[in-house]
Amino acid sequence: MSFIATPQFMHFPEALPLQGGASIQDYTLAYETYGTLNAERSNAVLVCHALNASHHVAGVYEGQPKSEGWWDNMIGPGKPVDTNRFFVIGVNNLGSCFGSTGPMHTHPGTGSVYGADFPVVTVEDWVDAQARLLDRLGITQLAAVMGGSLGGMQALSWTIQYPERMRHAVVVASAPNLTAENIAFNEVARRAIVTDPDFHGGHFYAHGVVPKRGLRIARMIGHITYLSDDVMNEKFGRQLRDGLEPKYSTQDIEFQIESYLRHQGDKFSDYFDANTYLLITRALDYFDPALRHGGSLTRALAAVRARYLLVSFSTDWRFAPARSREIVKALLDNHRDVAYAEIDAPHGHDAFLLEDARYMAVVRSYFDNIAKELV
């Protein structure tokens, strides 16, 4: 059974300096908390979200039975991250379209919607904003910071930017930076959006339109990279959508996989903001903590104090296991405490969101050990 979740909002009037040289002020962060903060304030777990997720990590909204949080199978009473023992915090990142200040909101200095004028944000900027929220909540040190995919990059960055502020980092299906292939996928998706006639240079709100065609294509491209070839073949194969005979058409939907991708694209274009998509994929591209250390991830992680759990999945070709092993090696080079699990799962990158008994058991065992430190 899922519990009732309640969104909360915190306003920050002071300016937040951004890595790109700009700053943002009078911004709001949306967040949710689950469980109870103990008297020592030592049982807090920060969960960082991936590209199209939000602060709604677990539970359901009152009166909305199908509103489960995106990691509801992982977090809650009696679940691997047990909210009977931990105080879990989910934060919606700046620039998102799910409650925190983003391109759809009004610029306090101009009175106009930000649109394309919203400043570029990075993983490091998100971590700085999250740290400010924790300050407001009176949490000086986290029991753990946790995330999958882009959320895992934030967890990694937390251990570099604020090495004394967490005891553990749980990084799932992630990487220390994007490969050229991954940047290429992001760029094709962005081109689909910015070349949509309804994009209007990012100021489409003023025109009363949404670049849905570009968003649909961007989502279809992304969704292909989240699944493995095995899963797509098992679910769809070469099945035709209608009947047993092809229509011999270049424009009709012929195959089941085409129908599925178009359905995913249609859904996405109804709820996601185009400027947010550009911002978040660019933040993915820019993340590279080794860059300031001559390309050495070992040197980038030299100041890390947190103990680590890293999890990867065998069929994840977007963030392949080899990328997690790069982080493991850099941590071991620095004589850090690190556990690593490579799960042989067929689901591709999306495996980090799915129910896999081995994966769940690894995370449960790790958090059981963290809980023992709280006694």
From TrEMBL:
Places the protein is found? Cytoplasm
Which is one Pfam family of this protein?
Answer: Abhydrolase_1
Q: Fetch the InterPro entries from UniProt.
A: AB_hydrolase_1 (IPR000073), AB_hydrolase_fold (IPR029058), HAT_MetX-like (IPR008220)
- Name the UniProt key words of this record, in alphabetical order: Acyltransferase, Amino-acid biosynthesis, Cytoplasm, Methionine biosynthesis, Transferase
Which pathway does the UniProt entry assign to this protein?
A: Amino-acid biosynthesis; L-methionine biosynthesis via de novo pathway; O-succinyl-L-homoserine from L-homoserine: step 1/1
Enzyme Commission number? 2.3.1.46
GO CC terms: cytoplasm
Outline the extent of the AB hydrolase-1 domain: 43-355
Q: Where is this site: Important for acyl-CoA specificity?
A: R318
Q: Which reaction does it catalyse?
A: L-homoserine + succinyl-CoA = O-succinyl-L-homoserine + CoA
Q: Where does substrate bind?
A: R219, D350
Q: Which GO terms describe its biological process?
A: homoserine metabolic process; methionine biosynthetic process
Main site of residence? cytoplasm
MF terms in GO: homoserine O-acetyltransferase activity; homoserine O-succinyltransferase activity
Superkingdom, according to UniProt? Bacteria
Annotated catalytic residues:
S149 (nucleophile), D316, H349
EC category name: transferase
Give the UniProt family note: Belongs to the AB hydrolase superfamily. MetX family.
| Purpose of the protein | Transfers a succinyl group from succinyl-CoA to L-homoserine, forming succinyl-L-homoserine.
The record's annotation in HAMAP family points to: MetX_acyltransf
Q: What NCBIfam families does this protein's entry cite?
A: homoserO_Ac_trn, PRK00175.1
Self-association or partners: how does it assemble? Homodimer.
According to UniProt, the name of this protein is Homoserine O-succinyltransferase
Q: Which organism is it from?
A: Paenacidovorax caeni
Q: What is the lineage of its organism?
A: Bacteria, Pseudomonadati, Pseudomonadota, Betaproteobacteria, Burkholderiales
- What gene makes this protein? metXS
